[in-house]
Amino acid sequence: MVKYPQNYVFVTVGSTNFDALIKVIDDPQFHTILQDFGYGGVLMQIGDGEYNPKYSRLVEPEELVLSKEKTKSFESLYYRYRKGIQQDIDNAGLVISHAGSGSIVETLEAGKPLVVVINDMLMHNHQEELANRLVQDQYLLVSTPQTLTSVIEQELKSYLENRVIVCENKNAVGEISEYINTIVQKGKRNPISKTNTMIVIGSGGHTFEMMRILDGMSMSNFTPRAYVLAETDKMGESKIVDKEGPPGKKPYTVSRIPRSRHVGQSYFTSIFTTLVSLYYCLFLVWHYCPDLVLCNGPGTCIPIVFAAWFFSLIRPGYRCNIVYIESVARVRGLSLSGLIAKYLATGFVVQWPSLSQVRKDVKVCNLFFPISESSSAQEVKGKGKGKGAKSR
């Protein structure tokens, strides 16, 4: 058993490698700054990072127990992965996170103060869009690894005094579920028949968003269910089992396919990896013959979407509805997956009003953040006039 201190700072990098952030946190001077704010220690989840912290102690996450007494000395602990980090978020006094949408939403919905650190070394870093959008509403602070120390020193006190707590957007899940049901029913000959459903699971925030969407659906009507995820996905299958239960007890299967595009991979080389993935997906879709493909943005979904669309064209008597929900992280423009799927999908959902004009029949519904009519009109009007707040 390892006791971790009260009012600690939880640091998470998700499933990524973000050594630049961990190196800033793993510094006695940074520890002193946090201690001056009244924090009793640091707990870091460091993922696949190559850097091994020098001023922190490696622990097994299952052994961690929150201390009931106030600790006298500042302590820094770390681990790589655990099944779920919600407990670590819930017990923290402050969260410092990478810019993944799943980590951001989990933290804000828990009511915790949050500093998001942008990984400015990533190519096409769309996660910066979400962080900078949420800064405007005073939900969080944003920095880069290089500016994290100064942001903590200069802005944390004011943020803690004035931050806005996220109000859960309770109606959104039901609204998207109703939208999916409407699309499915239009193409059905027998309205009470079950819907053979294929669900594409992405990594990190994509998985978090998809699980939220599925929470609002009547799963008994969408059976059997075939989950598809990338062969490199480390966490997705455990999330599926958490939701569905052990394989065999419910009508679902899990299939893995080669990843069509890796994080940071160039668009040119992704053409070839996508073709390899498509080869596998053609067989998969032909075998399962889904009535509905449900996906929300990972590159993994495009070969599945194309295969379902293609067989709907050439296979006699077969029609598959494709519903694409763009990630909440896409604020200013569609992802590459979205740019392709908007021409192939039966239904198309975006989560920010600034994307409401990407397609004539687009559905706008934010799963997590309530958007007022005034801010909605402002976003649409301001689209294309700038990139919003900068990372500080």
Secondary-structure blueprint of this entry?
Elements: E1 2-4, E2 9-12, H1 19-25, H2 28-36, E3 41-45, E4 57-58, E5 64-66, E6 75-79, H3 86-91, E7 94-97, H4 101-109, E8 114-117, H5 127-135, E9 141-143, H6 148-162, H7 170-186, E10 197-201, H8 205-215, E11 225-230, H9 236-244, E12 252-257, H10 267-288, E13 292-295, H11 301-314, E14 321-325, H12 336-341, E15 347-350, E16 363-364, H13 373-382
Parallel strand pairs: 1-5, 2-3, 2-7, 3-6, 4-6, 7-8, 8-9, 10-11, 10-13, 11-12, 13-14, 14-15, 15-16
Helix pairs in contact: 7-8, 10-11
Q: Percent range for helical residues?
A: 25-40%
* Strand residue percentage: 15-25%
Uncertain spans, ≥5 residues at pLDDT below 50? 384-392
Rg from alpha-carbon coordinates: 22 Å
How do the SSEs run, as a string of H and E?
Answer: EEHHEEEEHEHEHEHHEHEHEHEHEHEEH
Q: Mean of residue pLDDT?
A: 87
Strand count, sense and barrel status of the largest sheet are: 7 strands, parallel
The structural class is: alpha/beta
Strand order of the largest sheet: 4-6-3-2-7-8-9
Shape: elongated
Strand segment count: 16
Give the terminus-to-terminus CA distance: 39 Å
**Number of DSSP helical runs:** 13
Summarize the structure.
The chain is of the alpha/beta class and 392 residues long. It contains 13 helices and 16 strands. The model is unreliable at 384-392 (pLDDT under 50).
Keywords:
392 residues, alpha/beta, 7-stranded parallel beta sheet, 13 helices, elongated, disordered C terminus
